[in-house]
Amino acid sequence: MKKSPDSAATRQAEVDDREFIGTILDIFEGPFAMLTACLDESQNGPIFCVSGVLLGRKGLRALHREWSRELRLANLSYYHAVDCAHGLEEFEGMDKDRRMSLHKRMSQLIAKHALGSTTVVKLPWHFSFKKSDWGYSEYTACAFLCMNEMFDLADRFGLPRKISFFIEDGHPTEGELRNLISSRWKAAWGDGMVSYAFTGKLGYRAVQAADVVAYEVCKRFEEKSREPHKPTEKSMRKSLQAIITGDNHRGQWLDEGQRKKFAKLAGMEYVPPV
After folding, report:
1. Measured in whole angstroms, how far is the alpha carbon of residue 97 from the centre of its chain?
2. Selection from 77, 69, 147 nearest residue 109 by Cα
3. pLDDT for 126-161, tens place per residue?
4. Cβ density class 85-96: b for 16+ within 10 Å, e for less
5. How far apart are CA 258 and CA 134, in angstroms?
6. What tens digit of pLDDT does each residue of 103-112 get?
7. ∠ CA(136), CA(39), CA(205), 5° rounding?
8. Which of 42, 54, 183, 234 could make an S-S bridge to 225, C-beta 3.0–4.6 Å?
9. Are 35 and 50 in contact (CB under 8 A)?
10. Burial class (CB in 10 A: 0-12, 13-18, 19+), 268
11. Pairing of strands 163-168, 116-122
């Protein structure tokens, strides 16, 4: 049975997000980075990625307003790309055409209001990730590198290196990432990281936007994994095309070069492979 929110719950979710937006805009100048993780199964093993969206003050406020409008019209309290794709949770009972149309509109809102996006992905057929080599889990490695990409993205657009980060909570190794940020953010980025916080995805529209990017990236590589050593002739999904335009996206996949970069950011000695 569909887990539909009552109208009071839907309104409360919007109020909570509006208060969240108002609070961070009162305290911080921006820009703001929202990060979340995605795991997808492919024929060649699990694809894991962390993606984020970078928003300015105006974009953050506008995204909240228009995202909330779409949720109200669809009688949803939150947007979760995987649930939408498969008709789960609050999307149960919604026909596929309506769900796909909603996903397309959400992707267009990201393209309209986000300054850009970043992704760091682990591809099992491209690189064998070993925690013993990295010293941290794939989640922590991808997330920390994705945060670093946000600063490069800000540089690309001539924005101040003064970013406030909001990271989806709930990952099993979240504590590991928390500890790494707490101990290394100053050494890694100086005064560039204004603040960071772990926050729920279901209540905050901007974090839900990062979820859409992560989902789309995972789906793209899942499609490519069917023939990993051959160039795919399948065009990019239109929803991903809407998000990634020109040079507004920075993407990396884990490899030896990224391991060396991560070691420097994390204050570890880099030991080349034998």
Report:
1. 25
2. 69
3. 899 999 999 999 999 999 999 999 999 999 989 888
4. eeeebbbeebee
5. 10
6. 999 999 999 9
7. 100
8. 42
9. yes
10. middle
11. unpaired
